[in-house]
């Protein structure tokens, strides 16, 4: 398997940012539509908890990809500086 380019990593990071936004918006829309009852409140709390967990996983993955991208950039800079 080939190492991705920094451009490919940047694209993956953007996709994850969009996913994060979509997950958050979806959860918000679902909670808004819930009835104002004890059961609705319980379900809203569960949705909020799951959304927080999902977004935390997405942010962790984004951070890993950003770190990998930064490492590749640094390697590319070193290669260029060694050639000059």
Description:
With 84 residues, this protein is mainly alpha-helical. Helices cover 88% and strands 0% of the residues. It contains 2 helices and no strands. It has helices at 6-33, 38-83. The longest helix is centred in the last third of the chain and has 46 residues, at 38-83. The chain is rod-shaped. The model has no long low-confidence stretch (mean pLDDT 94).
What characteristics describe this protein?
84 residues, mainly alpha, rod-shaped
Give a brief outline of the structure.
The protein is 88% helix and 0% strand.
Structural class call reads mainly alpha
Instruction: Choose one word for the global shape.
Output: rod-shaped
Strand content: under 5%
Termini, distance in Å? 29 Å
Q: Secondary-structure map with pairings?
A:
Layout: H1 6-33, H2 38-83
